[in-house]
Structures are given as C-alpha cells and as structure tokens.
Amino acid sequence: MTQKSIKQLEIELWEAADELRANSKLTAAEYKDPLLGLILLRFAENKYEEAKDHLAETLPINPRTKQRREATKDDFAQAGAMQLPEKAQYSYLASLPESEDLAEAINTAMKLIEAEYEDLAGILPKNYQELTPEDDSDNNLLANLIRIFNSDSVRNAKGDVFGRVYEYFLMKLSMMGAGAQEGGEFFTPPSLVQLIVNFIQPDHGIIHDPACGSGGMFVQTAHFIKNTQNKSVNQAVTVYGTEYKSNNTRLAKMNLAIHGIEGKIANNNSFYADPHELFGKCDFLMANPPFNVDKVDAKNKFLAEDKRLPFGAPLTGKGTIGNANYLWIQYFMSYLNPTGRAGFVMASSATDAGNAEKRIREELIKTGNVDCIVSVGNNFFYTRSLPCHLWFFDKGASAPLSNRKDKILMIDARNVYRKVSTTINDFSEEQLEGLTAIMALYRGEKPNVAKDNAWFNEHFPDGMYRDVEGLCKVVDLEEMAEQDYSLTPGRYVGVNIDIDMDFDYKTRMQELHSELAELNTEANQLMNQIQAFKL
Fold it and tell me: Of 138, 157, 140, 194, nearest to 13 (Cα)?
C-alpha cells in the first residue's frame, strides 16, 4: 500500500469505529483497550497468513517423504508472526453465527494467545462482554467492530500497515482524553518523539525508556532503523521499558507485539527500582516522564542509596522532595554508558528551577554531558497546552578530543510549528528535517536535508552552521555561568524582530488611536446612560 492509501485506511477505520462508540454508552477510556485488542487480533492473523505462505515455500523438504516439514512456533517467530490456534484467528471469529456468544469467543481467543506467548500473559483485553448490547436490538457494537476490521482492504493489508493503524488509534484516543485520570499520558505526540529519535539516532545497542507509556519511543526507533539501515529493529537493538501504570504497560506490550519488536517491559516504579539493572549500560535513552511529581518518598531506602543520583535528591528545607524532575534527569544521565546518548521531554520550569534543583543543574552542566536543549511551544500535547523542553545528553561529547566539549547547543523552537487545529500544533516534515539538520551541523556532520527545504535554506543559506538570532546559539560554560547556569534557550539566542519595510506603521498607529478614541466616546456614552437610569 502507498503512504496515501495507508493514511486513507487509518482515517476510514477510525471514523467507522468512532461512530460506533458515539452511538454507544461507552466513554473513550472504556472503548480504548478492547478496540486496540481487536486491531492486534486482526494484525496477528494477517501476519500469520503471510508467514504461512512464506514458510510453505521455504521450509526444507524431507527427502524421504518429499514433503516440507510442518511449520513450528519458532518458524513463525522467525518470520515475525505468531502461530495462531484456529479459535484465535480473526476469520474464525468473523464467521461465527449470530447464535454464538461473540464476546466470549473473543475473550477465549485472547486467552489462547496468552497461553502460547509468555510476554503477552495477562496483557490482552478480555472484557468484550462490555461491547455487547443490553437487549436484542440490531445495534451490536462488537459485531459491527468485527465487521469493520474484516473488509477486503484490511484483510489484504501487508507489512507494517497495522502498526501504523495502531499508532493512529492511540493518537486519536489520546486526543479524546482516554488516558484515565491524567488524560492521554500514555501517548507522546509523534513530532516530539521523532525529533528525539532524529537527534540521538538510536541505531544500535541497548535502548531504555524508564517511563515508557505505550512504547512510542521504541516504535519510532524501529522506523528509524528500517529507514536508515534497512534492517529490523530486533537485529540492531535491544529495548527495555519500565512503566508504573499497569494499563499503560499492557498498551506498550501490545504495541511492541503489533510492530514485531522484541523487548522487555517491566510494570514497576522507576523512582524506587531499576528493574532491568541498566545503570551505566545504555547506548540510548528516550523518555517522556510525568512532570513535576510531588509525592516521591524521600525516606525510601532504595532512593536514599540510589547510585542513579550522583548529585543527590533535590530535597527541600524540610527534607522532602517537592518536585521529581531532577530525579528523572539524573536517572537518564546515569543509565548511559561512556558514549551513550539521551533525549527526553521535560517541564519548562526545570531549565531555570532554583534551590536544590539549581545546584544539581550546575553539576550536570559541568559534567559536559548536556549536549542540546530545545524549547517547544504550546499545544503540542493533545490534552494540555503547556510548553516543554527537549533535553539531550551525549557522554561522547565530553570526551577530551570532542569539538563540543563544554558547549551546549541552544535551540528556541517556540515559533517553529505547524498549526494542525485551533488547539494542536506539530512540526511539519520540513521543520523536522531542518531542526535535525541544525543538530547535524553542530556535530560537524553532513545533514540529510532536501535542497528545496525553504525553512532550512532561509536560516542556513550556505549550508553551514551559524548562530541565528531568535533560533539557535552554541553556548560555552563561561556564558552559562554568567546566566546563573540557566538552560533556557531564550536567554541565549535572543529575539529576532522582523520589520516589514513596506508596511506603513505611522498611518496604522494613527488609525488605531482614532479607533481607540471612538471606543472611549462610546464607553462614556454608555456609562452616562447607565448612571441616568433610575430603578
């Protein structure tokens, strides 16, 4: 399928599924898990049929019987598919007569898959009775959903189409606030994930996300590896995730299964555990942790002895932890090996936070591991409008011979965005490519940027890095010390003021003064009328 046809399929499936929900009593949060579970079932059968055809042509032939040997579970795994029992196949469920209990049949299918695949044990949704009608009316939500994902275009979809569909549905559900209490926290906007991946280039070794949500960082890594190395993610990297909320853990494991990514996701609290024991071992780290957490137990024994906190906990005068941002930031640096890179989303307040946070920030900067900070404007998140910053660490940049030692690239991208809707912004492909090119130029690498990228050409006309007022600047330790070790790019890059020489400012100001005078006159007249009115 072409990219255009995949996009059209995503939209058609979502609109059909959402229309069914709108005519039911279910909230988006209640709908989310069973809906995504059906996508996984549909995907699993497509991959199963694809692998079965492939194995039928490639398995070795027994010289005695002249027949190919029977395919095993391992054979299917090698082909990137699950070996499905008949009653766990989507076509079996779609062909059940109306007299059968469809909800119970799907619940059974999920149990059969979990019994065969340990990583999915206890993960798949098994509450499909909630999608059945309360009476015998024709408006059977579950049966109609099964039908939607059984069309010819869906049955014939190959490759990573269902991974794309799954990601699209996660995004749409997040935009509807289907993330339980916090609303959408299981999903990081694709623009931010892609910029992180583009900047740190996670193409080998161990990758970790200690607050992995639904696993979006791993999925984008798989896309990056396929596009740049033309190999599978499992050939290039080993992924580990940690997620505190059990429902998000289930989403992440399903997401990895949908994309054929082999990885370990631990349902644990990163504040009090390092379940994968990855201290100092990671080649890459990516994360979008919860911001400004204020309920971390400062007296917890694990936290008190945590080697992931080289500069200590950010304690208040009362010995409590009022904000966990600088716990996360230290964890992210500590997980990296001597050449490791990290990219993560962080609350904007962290770049200038005072007290204990300022002390820790100064120590972090002096390690030389802070490589780049990017300011991001409002409305990139689907359920909250706050701005954020992207932080990047690179332990290789602090090596004695590095040309970036004791320097930080500051990028103020608050005015770099594309308006998707009245409440949502993202980066366009051109802007993503341009921002990525800035990082490449800063590293002394040749950027992969299209010749007709107008945004990039406007700011870097000769294709070489330069400080651009209002956009980017390379800052050294001395300048940061003068700014009290602030990591807010706006403090360094300045403000770019564009003056339109063809605009008649004087005449426009006269017009505004005239309009203001008229409004003041009308206001005075209304005030006189109100005061003259007698009750």
Answer: 157
